[in-house]
């Protein structure tokens, strides 16, 4: 008896029937002729952890402030759970915001800080007590209720700010660089804790950050912004492995790019002739690239392999001289100069100690990579 094929479950953003929980439609913000946000359309689904990523001044924080109601759009509409909130003030939206500075009241205890929003709404004392206890347990701060903010570490203050943001059970929680004030080790630990809390409470999170690693680790999807525009929206894997333009490829970490001319454009591959690379570049999946067009082929450093003898195939293989080695503990980055003068980066895991390695400075080496590990950039 033949087995039925397994049904692939679509994510909400892949399902045309799914309704977005947060929807921005052509949203723009003009500050006296300076377009901070330019015609952004974005759909975020219930329970997502969505990140807005981009350099300083790209418009991501302005977009977050418009979602919060602290800024009003110059054009466009904002919908939360199907309701148009475009002109509603911040206090009349089912939204809470966690600020980068945490903005805790210094004269109040942890419990008083967390309870503040419920007291403003004149919630019953018994209910406030129960909800404060519940949310402090969630962020593992139940033992610190009587303390004041100055008696807490940076990580503890961050948890209190998160508890205060969650206690009113908002439909949407906005996070503005929530981990920026923490040291590297604590930031890495807190990333996973924040994701676990988000999954437990089920609240939709939208986070602003300029840290690529942070966004990749925490997000279901992310949007890359540049000069007020949304350049690409996708899962961390899609954004990193399949950038839709050179800007996104560069922004999401180190990448090697070779200029060349398309000499074959078939349904299953593109072949690019590149003097800069010193070889023909065979790409097994690509955007449409007509024969004769000038393109760039991009390969991430960790996809580039190093050998001391020539590879079997001439395509996707070149040679050069090791000019520098950057030792980072778990990996090393090799800077290899090709005959064209192009410097190629190759990242290799440190499986053996530095002194035991077969490749060192000034060695002639061969670089090669798989056809499926490169991508053609046409934009």
List keywords for this structure.
379 residues; alpha+beta; Rossmann fold; OB fold (Dihydrolipoamide Acetyltransferase, E2P); 2 domains; six-stranded mixed beta sheet; five-stranded antiparallel beta sheet; 8 helices; 20 strands; 22% helix; 33% strand; globular
Write the SSE topology.
Elements: E1 22-31, E2 34-44, E3 49-53, H1 60-68, E4 75-80, E5 83-84, E6 95-98, H2 110-120, H3 125-138, H4 154-166, E7 172-176, H5 184-201, E8 204-209, H6 212-218, E9 221-226, E10 229-234, H7 236-241, H8 246-251, E11 256-265, E12 270-274, E13 279-283, E14 294-299, E15 305-307, E16 317-327, E17 331-338, E18 343-349, E19 364-368, E20 374-377
Parallel strand pairs: 3-8, 3-9, 6-7, 7-8
Antiparallel strand pairs: 1-2, 1-4, 4-5, 9-10, 11-12, 11-14, 12-13, 14-20, 15-19, 16-17, 16-19, 17-18
Helix pairs in contact: 2-3, 2-4, 3-4
What does this 3D model show about the protein?
Helix 3 (125-138) crosses helix 4 (154-166). A hairpin with a 2-residue loop joins strand 9 (221-226) and strand 10. The model has no long low-confidence stretch (mean pLDDT 92). The strands form four sheets. This protein has a six-stranded mixed sheet, with helices on both faces. It folds into two domains: 12-246, P-loop containing nucleotide triphosphate hydrolases (Rossmann fold), CATH 3.40.50; 254-377, Beta Barrel (OB fold (Dihydrolipoamide Acetyltransferase, E2P)), CATH 2.40.50.140. The two termini are 50 Å apart. The chain is of the alpha+beta class. The chain is built from eight helices and 20 strands. The radius of gyration is 25 Å and the shape is globular.
């Amino acid at each position: 008896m033949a087995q039925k094929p397994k049904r692939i479950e679509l994510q909400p953003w892949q399902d045309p029937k799914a309704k977005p929980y947060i929807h921005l439609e052509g949203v723009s913000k003009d500050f006296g002729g300076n377009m901070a946000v330019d015609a952004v359309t974005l759909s975020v689904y219930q329970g997502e952890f969505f990140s807005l990523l981009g350099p300083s001044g790209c418009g991501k924080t302005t977009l977050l402030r418009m979602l919060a109601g602290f800024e009003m759009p110059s054009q466009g509409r904002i919908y939360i759970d199907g309701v148009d909130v475009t002109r509603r003030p911040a206090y009349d939206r089912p939204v809470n915001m966690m600020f980068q500075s945490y903005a805790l009241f210094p004269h109040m205890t942890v419990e008083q800080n967390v309870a503040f929003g419920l007291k403003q709404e004149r919630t019953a004392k018994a209910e406030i007590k129960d909800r404060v206890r519940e949310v402090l347990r969630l962020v593992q701060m139940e033992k610190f209720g009587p303390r004041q903010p100055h008696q807490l570490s940076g990580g503890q203050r961050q948890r209190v700010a998160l508890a205060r943001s969650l206690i009113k059970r908002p439909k949407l929680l906005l996070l503005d660089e929530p981990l920026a004030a923490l040291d590297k080790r604590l930031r890495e630990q807190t990333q996973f804790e924040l994701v676990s809390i988000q999954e437990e409470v089920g609240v939709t999170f939208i986070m602003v950050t300029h840290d690529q690693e942070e966004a990749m680790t925490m997000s279901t999807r992310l949007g890359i912004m540049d000069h007020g525009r949304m350049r690409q929206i996708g899962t961390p894997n899609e954004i990193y492995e399949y950038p839709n333009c050179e800007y996104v490829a560069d922004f999401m970490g180190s990448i090697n790019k070779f200029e060349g001319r398309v000499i074959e454009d078939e349904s299953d591959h593109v072949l690019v002739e590149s003097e800069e690379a010193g070889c023909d570049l065979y790409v097994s999946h690509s955007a449409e690239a007509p024969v004769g067009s000038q393109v760039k082929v991009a390969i991430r450093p960790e996809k580039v392999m190093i050998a001391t003898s020539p590879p079997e195939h001439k395509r996707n293989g070149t040679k050069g001289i090791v000019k520098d080695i950057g030792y980072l503990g778990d990996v090393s980055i090799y800077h290899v100069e090709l005959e064209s003068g192009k410097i190629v980066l190759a990242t290799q895991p440190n499986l053996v100690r530095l002194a035991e390695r077969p490749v060192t400075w000034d060695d002639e080496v061969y670089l090669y990579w798989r056809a499926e590990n490169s991508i053609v950039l046409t934009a």
